[in-house]
Amino acid sequence: MSRRHLASRAWYDSLRPVRQGGHEVVLLEGGGEFFPALIESIDAARAHVSLETYIFSDDPSARAVAAALAAAARRGVQVRVVVDGFGTPRLGGEVARMLAAGGVSLETYRPEPRGFALDRRRLRRLHRKLAVIDGQVVFVGGINLLDDHVDPNHGALESPRFDFAVRVRGPLAATAQLAVQRLWWELSIVNQPSRLLRRQAREQMELSAAVVGDVTPAGSVEAMLVLRDNFRFRREIENQYLRAIGRARREVLIANAYFFPGRRMRESLKAAAASGVRVRLLLQGRVEYRLQHWASQAMYDELLRAGIEIVEYRASFLHAKVAVIDDWATVGSSNIDPFSLLLAREANVVVEDAGFAAQLRARILAAIDEGGAPVALSHHARRAWPMRLLHRLSYQLLRLAVALSGATAGY
What domains can be seen in the chain, in order of their start residue? Predict the structure, then answer.
């Protein structure tokens, strides 16, 4: 067995993304591939499991994960789970019972206030889906702990939700371990009910000497973990996209659930298309959230006239947040909209590897062939005036929501 290489980092060290070699990156499509891989890693955990998710549902898939977490905690593994207070306002049912009985530690990111509260900070959510096992295995992607065949707003689905995650081993595990540890410390302070307990938690955090993560090479792939927060890395994911699009020579292929890009992103995509790069967007074809859906369609005319191809995914709900730009690829939790790019905590993995890019590209193209409906400029331009008005109003309302949130996006 090869010797592990561990890195000790102060809790306040930078989480700036650094591209490094030495990774094994496994692409996981949908819950059918993601949940078994996650459970297998949790079952093998020896020391600690940290899991962050926007939605932790109470359905068969989520219960299987909860059972694995509880079993790990019972055998002495330190298990910590963080859920978002809006995505999971109340963790209940069989999942809550299993986690509590197993001794799993649970924190909530920004618990929702009781009753009505007009506070723009409520839009600052924990949207990243991140799991770190023993500081060695990392899962990142767009998949919530939610069954592929169930939608919280629309009920049972005939076809599974289209989404991706990756399992990563290698040096970026140390950054992921530091990220989840730091957020846990922050929440253990913020969520304390009294000033005395908050002070004691802060003192304990400051006394913690270091976070140990695994930097053992596990493969040959270059990758990095890219985090977005509201402090030092406000535009980090967006900037990674812009740099990759600006360097594109052959193709830009993006599959994104909630697509409402700002001016910089739109101009970058149009410039790529003008330079001869093939630009294709796979976007949501089913109406999940009406305002976002119609606001996104309001941008179609501008993009189509610039030579950008748009395909709507209609086989099921599209939840993916992935892209392939030549040999550059990303898989993560961040939509290309202001709520992800400017407000939420997000996590993406960026991979620079021709083999991985080709694999992800093939999966996206298969989705286009099997469930995609191309949008023609001639057809879109002839839409009835009530629909035109609806698109325009939705666009302006979403812009207003961005402005009220305090974000500045250039929309």
Answer: 6-223 (3.30.870.10), 225-404 (3.30.870.10)
